Amino acid sequence: MAFIELYRDRLKHNYNYLEKLFEDRNIEWGVVTKLLCGNRAYIKEVINLGVREIHDSRISNLKVVKSIDPSIQTVYIKPPAKRSIKNIIKYADVSLNTEYATIRMLSDEAVRQNKKHKILIMIEMGDLREGVVGNQVLDFYGRVFKLPNIEIVGLGTNLNCLHGVMPSHDKLIQLSLYKQLIEAKFNREIPWVSGGTSVTIPLLMKNMRPEGVNHFRVGEILYFGLNLFTMEKVEGMRDDVFKLFAEIIELHEKPKVPTGELAENPSGEIAEINEEDYGKKSYRAILDIGLLDMSPEFLIPEDDRIEITGASSDMMVIDLGASDRNYKVGDLISFKLRYMGALGLLNSDYIDKKIV
C-alpha cells in the first residue's frame, strides 16, 4: 500500500520560521488544518507546535481539535450551511460569514446554547468567491451589531482562491479602510483585519503589508514552504514536510507508443502520439496508486529522471527511460507534493498516514 509521511522536525522548522515572521510584525495568526482531513495524529502534531488557534472548513475536523485540546480557539472558515448551525456553535468559537440570515440563525442557536459566538465578516475584494460587496458593508455591519450573543471580531478577505486574483498593497489598504469606516460609524472596535492566507505572505516579506492588517490564516506555506507568487520554495523553509511513497508492482521494457485504434480512456483523454517515439522502447514501471487517491500533476518525483506517463483509477505508470536504473519490483518511489496532491492523498482511506 502506498503511504504518506509527515516529518515532525520539518513541520516544526516551518512553524518556527512563520512564528518569527509574524511576531516581528505584531501579527496574530492561526493554522489552517483542512489539508489534514481530520487525521487525529496529524492534527495533534500541529497542536504540539504550540498553536493556539486552528482554522478548518469541516466542522468534524474542529470537533477533533476540541477533543484533543478544548482550549484551542477554533475558527470555521467558510460561510456556514443552515444544517450545520448547531454544530458550528458547539465546536467553532469563531466563524467566517457573509449572509445576514445565516448570522441571525447563529445568534438564535448561540442564545439556545448560552454561548457568545464570534464572527469575522468576509468582504468581496475581486476574486468573486465569498464576501459582502463593498457598498453593502456598512449596512451589513449595522444589522449584525444588533444581534444577541454575536460578537464581531473582525473583517477579512480571501484572494487567489477561485479566479486567481492576487493580493496587493492597494487591496490590503482598502481592507484596512473598511475597518476604520466601521469603527468610526458605529463606535465599535474591530480587533482583526484578517488580511489573507499563504498567498499574502510574500507581501509581508517585502514589507508591503499595511500595518492595519493584523491577522492571517495560514496553511499551505506551513506545509510546503512555497511562495505562491513565484511558485518557488521560500528561502529558509522546507518543501518536504510531506512525502509520498508508492511501490513498484510491475517493471518491464515496453514500446513507448501504444498500438491499436485509439479512443477515449475512462478519464475522457485521448493519447497524443509523438511520431519520433515510433519503434522506441523504454522501461515502464507501474506504481500502486491511482486517480482515486491523487492527481499526477501535483506529484514531484524526487528522482528527476522519472517521467509520469499517466494514471488510471488504481495505478500510475512512470517512464524510466532506456534503463531500469537498478529499480526492481517492490522498490519504493518517493515524491514531494503540491497542495492539491497532498489533499487528495490525505483524504484517501487507501493511503497509510505515518509520522517520522
Automatic annotation (TrEMBL):
UniProt xrefs under Gene3D superfamilies: Alanine racemase (3.20.20.10)
Domain Alanine racemase N-terminal per the UniProt entry, residue ranges: 9-225
The organism's place on the tree of life at top rank: Bacteria
Record-linked SUPFAM superfamilies: PLP-binding barrel
Cofactor(s) needed by this chain: pyridoxal 5'-phosphate
Molecular function via GO: alanine racemase activity; pyridoxal phosphate binding
Lineage: Bacteria, Pseudomonadati, Bacteroidota, Cytophagia, Cytophagales
Pfam families, alphabetized: Ala_racemase_N
Protein name per the record: Alanine/ornithine racemase family PLP-dependent enzyme
GO annotation, cellular component aspect: cytosol
Keywords, in A-Z order: Isomerase, Pyridoxal phosphate
CDD domains: PLPDE_III_AR_like_1 (cd06815)
Organism: Fulvivirga sedimenti
